[in-house]
Amino acid sequence: MATHRLSKLFAPQSLAVVGASEREGSLGRALWERVNSKSGDHTARYAGRVYAVNPKHRRIFGADAFARMIDLPERVDLALITAPAQHCAQIVRDCGAAGCSYALILSHGFSDSAEGMAAARELKAAAIDSRVRIVGPNARGMLRPRLSLDASTMTGVEQLPLEGSLGVISQSGAWVSILRDFAAGSAIGFSSLLSLGDAIDLDFGELLDFFAFDADTKDVLLYIEEVRNAPAFMSGVRQLSRMKPVVVLKADRADLHRTPDGTHATALARHDQIFDAAIARAGAVRVDTAMQMVSTARLLAGQTRRDKHRVVAITNGRGPGLVAADAVRGKGLSLAPLTESTYARLRAELPSYARVGNPLDIAGDATAERYRLAIDALLNDDTVDVCLVLFSPQSMLGAEALATQIIEAAQHHKKTVLAVLGGGASVMAARRMLDAARIPQFLSAENAVDAIGFLHTFARNQSLLRQVPEQSVDGFSPHLDEARQIFEHAWADHRTRLFAHEARQLLGAFGIAMTTTGLARTPTEAVNLADQLGYPVVLKIVSPDIFHKTEIGGVQLDLRDAKSVRAAAKTIFTDVKSNAPDAHLIGLSVQPFVRFRGQRELYLGIANDPTFGATLAFGAGGIA
């Protein structure tokens, strides 16, 4: 059977805990105990061989302890390192000498001081020289439920999550802890959970390649704070999402740590928007909140179809049904248009006061049997893809009885069945029943519809993934010499940006039709150019220091004769010198003022994003 190059990292047959200790409260003790103990409901412990490495001790909890990696009696697959930061580089060198190719470094202190950053640089150099691949440092560890392997130092939960199909990679150890804790009280199962830490070596790109290969992983959740290697990241996400759903939660939407360069392109295409576009183009889907990530995880963990999303809601209270319908429409999803045969069946089997439609209100006195009849009728309708069962506590029906009906319906139909059990203590037992049966259940209709919506977005983004743009226009060759001269002129002026008239000339050289634009350095030159171009015209200030012209009086529109052009030119120079006294003024661009019936305005620009590079931005125009 083929193996992946990272198999020894994710499925080690032997490992060493470097820094293993008996000292209470130490990382080494926490990790040693996690690796060597049975965990929660798991009756088996990790079956691989585990060695303790600590130069200060001969034995750790009764096991032999070795001074260095090179002293181990065999070559191990993975080193789990908890030693102080200043020792990690040498430990990695020892790993290389001992034939251990992978290290998961849980040690911290690499980014908090100059000494720590120096230790990080030394660690990276040691890894390269020793050919040891690193996860971390400052990682919180890895969990592999199928192997009964808890190689983490996360506190608060003393059991492994259930074995399942969700793979998780997170730049935040805290987020992995949250998911782990959440899973402890639900039926969500995981194939892997991995905390990246500082990711000085192995990052999303290569790790996602393993998830694409791993048969145990069906869906992938990513928590991202920063993309360090955009080409590798995009390649990894694109390859993985061709085969499996990829759901992304990205923090720092406000781009607070980025400094804008003042251009329109940067103003209109913030980094977060560029990240959104990149994720969509790679075929993945982005969620906005932790709750949405959890809701989507619930849906992915259940037996759900991923391709169709026409929703029907059934409720024993009109209010929750209307809220659910609003949520469906708000997400751009479709309420299933029930067939006439379904309407006829429902009218025959339900009491006359039931509101037959979508949502379907079977009234507050609904029994478990009434729910069963209604759910069966809806799931047998070919227009229905998703059945959302809503319940509000009533004296006529216990939540456990309804849960039994929902479970039976989900087991007898291939369609997606979701449950929203309103209330608290009175429905907790029923929620546990649904969790045990792996029926996705949610606290609110909005949470459920959010999750459905993200799967719908995933399906749409998959179509983007398959789109391949044409390479060129048949029969057209760009005027490269003309384009080159434009750049050479700018470089000769020691400029890194083109003026507006130069940008238009450049686009024209590549076959994009543009209005003729001239550069005037005086009001008289502006009049002469306007006479040549024909009236009306537009004047705009030209300066390497000014990006937003309108705000400082640098634009005059619809100038219909020489007199108005001369006056407007003088006004622009006066206003700009007053509002931007330090700006170097080159002159005025003069171009025809175009107006016609049914016109459309389009903004088109390029933003040089620090992560993803040159990015095309476009939208509604209207700013000069």
Provide a descriptive summary of the structure in words.
This protein is of the alpha/beta class. Among the domains are: 309-440, 3-Layer(aba) Sandwich (Rossmann fold), CATH 3.40.50.261; 480-620, 2-Layer Sandwich (Dna Ligase, domain 1). 38% of the residues lie in helices and 20% in strands. It has 20 helices and 26 strands. The strands form five sheets. Strands 3-4-2-1-5-6-7 form a seven-stranded mixed beta sheet, with helices on both faces. A seven-stranded mixed beta sheet has the order 9-8-11-10-12-13-14, with helices on both faces. A hairpin with a 3-residue loop joins strand 25 and strand 26. Helix 3 packs parallel to helix 4 (114-130), helix 10 (290-301) crosses helix 16 and helix 14 (399-412) runs parallel beside helix 15 (428-436). The longest helix is centred in the C-terminal third of the chain and has 21 residues, at 445-465. The chain is flat and about 90 Å long.
Secondary structure: helix percent: 25-40%
Mean pLDDT: 89
* Second CATH tier, the architecture of one domain: 2-Layer Sandwich
State the total count of DSSP E strands: 26
Q: How far apart lie the N and C ends?
A: 62 Å
Strand order of the largest sheet: 3-4-2-1-5-6-7
Q: Per DSSP, what share of the residues sits in E-state strands of 2 or more residues? A: 15-25%
CATH superfamily of one domain: ATP-grasp fold, A domain
Radius of gyration: 32 Å
The major beta sheet can be summarized as: 7 strands, mixed
What is the number of helices? Answer: 20
Low-confidence segments, given as residue ranges, are: none
